[in-house]
Specification:
Elements (H helix, E strand, L loop, with lengths): L15 H13 L2 E2 H10 L5 H4 L12 H4 L1 H17 L6 E6 L5 H9 L4 H6 E6 L3 H11 L9 E3 L10 E6 L8 E6 L2 E9 L6 E5 L12 H4 L6 E4 L1 H17 L1 E10 L9 E4 L2 E3 L9 E3 L2 E2 H10 L3 E7 H8 L1 H10 L3 H15 L4 H4 E7 L16
Helix pairs in contact: 5-6, 10-11, 13-14
The protein binds S-adenosyl-L-homocysteine.
The site of S-adenosyl-L-homocysteine has 19 residues, from helix 4.
Length: 382
């Protein structure tokens, strides 16, 4: 394949991240898939999210808030509703995990601008590791916050105490996963090393004995030989922290992502570049790597931290119950025929069963004794 420079890919100099990972493997031996993925996305100098803004039609992928303003608006109104249902606390930390370009937060703040008591209670916190994206978020929110700045954090740990509203859209799918494979001798971890012949990264199986079986849920352990199971230790740790924070201070989190409602075998790690799938190991740092979110594991971790977990429900049913069709009808009234067609296409994309509506799911976490959040009323108390 020809590259942008006109050279065949095989003759291009290796990226700095590829060199770094090969050096690491030469020194440390094979690394876990999580370690490879963590460097590919988050290496402090060469990581995929660290070096550039990858979003939108001209970038590698598009997310719900980038598809339509309606997504952030509805989440913003959901936040205001949740705040009111909590008795309108005087101070509320609105925290977004992995805010990307900041589009969701901008739209959420704009949609709630006509609710001054809610807005006055808010303190906006952005948990974001990428300096490039922090800068984008700052620009995006400048007018919404009337010159005020959000507070940025590397992790939830530094967000001050107090009631919380937490939003995470397509955040958990970007956290590094470990992969395990069932062999005739039991489960072993998949590792990444360098093929001595081709010089390319490849997947190998860990031959060292280790306590792997305990990491696989009993239901999954009996899968046939060749099955793959993925776990995301960072997601579990963050969900447990979040659960503990919500249990201590009250509040609600809404987690939107693509994934499966229950832990299950299946290989889901994928690479995406310029809106097309690419091999995961080919050019680390140049493609987005994501994996399906295991919502059962997230819910269990949050419950272990002390929170209630609701759902997941599908993104389609969540957005429909928040009124996306009504909002679209409202926007259509002031739209040109072309804009009206775009609005309809966006609704279809966000809630259509064969698009994001079913694959994407929404999990809510609440502090003790809180009622069902909007969009989850039909579910039993957890
Ligand atoms: N929520 C946005 C972006 C999703 S992409 C949207 O819907 O458009 C994932 C985001 O998470 C990016 O902003 C990325 O820089 C950030 N991110 C990835 N790993 C992170 C980590 N460990 N801690 C904080 N932010 C992280």
């Amino acid at each position: 394949m020809a590259s942008e420079s006109g050279l065949p890919e095989s003759e291009l100099p290796e990226s700095e991240l590829t060199e770094h990972l090969k050096r690491r493997i030469a020194v440390e031996g094979p690394v876990s898939v999580a370690s490879f993925m963590g460097d590919a996305l988050g290496h402090p100098k060469f990581g995929y999210y660290i070096t550039a803004d990858r979003f939108g039609a001209a970038g590698d992928f598009i997310t719900a808030p980038e598809i339509s303003q309606m997504f952030g608006e509805l989440i913003g109104l959901w936040c205001a509703h949740t705040w009111a249902a909590m008795g309108s606390p005087e101070r509320m930390n609105l925290v977004e995990l992995g805010p990307g370009r900041g589009t969701l937060m901008r739209d959420a703040l704009r949609a709630t601008a006509m609710l001054p008591p809610f807005r006055e209670a808010l303190r906006v916190h952005m948990v974001e590791t990428s300096p490039v994206l922090r800068a984008r978020q700052g620009e995006m929110l400048a007018s919404a916050l009337q010159g005020g700045e959000p507070v940025w954090h590397d992790s939830l740990a530094t967000v001050p105490d107090g009631p919380l509203l937490v939003i995470a859209n397509e955040f958990f799918d970007a956290l590094p996963i470990r992969q395990f494979e069932k062999t005739p001798h039991g489960w072993t971890e998949r590792l990444v090393d360098v093929d001595p012949e081709s010089g390319n990264f490849r997947i190998i199986l860990d031959r060292r004995p280790g306590p792997v079986e305990a990491l696989i849920p009993a239901r999954v352990r009996i899968s046939p030989v060749g099955s793959v199971f993925e776990i995301c230790p960072a997601a579990t740790a963050i969900a447990r922290d979040l659960g503990a924070r919500l249990a201590a201070s009250g509040g609600t989190a809404v987690i939107v992502d693509y994934g499966h409602p229950r832990s299950a075998a299946g290989e889901t790690l994928q690479g995406v570049r310029r809106h097309a799938f690419v091999p995961v190991l080919d050019d680390p740092g140049a493609a987005d790597l994501t994996a399906h979110v295991d919502f059962e594991m997230l819910a269990d971790a949050a419950k272990a931290g002390g929170a209630g977990a609701w759902g997941p429900v599908t993104q389609g049913s969540f957005l429909a119950s928040l009124g996306i069709r009504e909002r679209a009808a409202q926007l259509r009234q002031r739209a040109t025929p072309k804009q009206a067609a775009d609005i309809d296409a966006a609704v279809q994309r966000l809630i259509g069963e064969t698009e994001m509506g079913t694959l994407f799911k929404v999990l809510a976490l609440t502090g003790p004794g809180q009622e069902a959040p909007a969009g989850f009323e039909s579910l039993a108390q957890p």
